[in-house]
Amino acid sequence: MTKICFVHSGVELAEKAAKTLIDRHGNHELADADVIVALGGDGFMLHMLHKSIHHNIPIYGINCGTVGFLMNEHDLDNVPARIAAAKSVTMHPLKMIAKDQKGKTIEALAINEVSLLRETRQAAKIQITIDGEMRLEELVCDGILVATSAGSTAYNLSAHGPIIPLGSNLLALTPISAFRPRRWRGALIPNKSEVTLDILHAHKRPVSVVADSQEYRNIQTVKIHEDKSVTLNLLFDKGHDLEERILMEQFITS
Known about the structure:
alpha+beta; six-stranded antiparallel sheet; Tumour Suppressor Smad4; Rossmann fold
């Protein structure tokens, strides 16, 4: 019998679903569980992935939110059997190492993306270096982001970045409202790359950095790479797996 830790986002639908499932199957503490069942939306799934990131426990999501891209359908029947038959998808987060204008070092992990955003009315000016080689001397923009495959359908897609299939071993480097160079639309880079983003004229044109939901302001430089030492494990019902959903996103016409 799988030991399940049921957690919910706090919204009414998720809370009721959690009570129903706990009454049926019991509940275990996170440290004692074999699997986490997260009831909520995509934001709650990201929260739980971060919370359990060092526990090495797979997470099975049940959608009680809006989009539910990272979740399974809202169905409370036969949950243990569905978990046992689920397809596992493994991912590695991005590791962000930033320095602010006072020289303080900040580290964070991001499952979807690391994004840099201008803090004032003035556009940001950012220099882009990949694996020690400067690729773009000056990008004038509202910001820029580095997205994983799982995150490529989130903020990255809204910023007109490419959708990246799982297993492609790529990251998306996507500008946000680029002013110069006008025709630069971003790049796809190997996921083994290290991206360095230096903020030019940082005091005059301050920039913040956001790793998923963690925000830090007045940044001077940011280094980003995929952290292979951390593995995330999501469980999906057959026919509803993340790889198929990312593929389907590329054929939506309305």
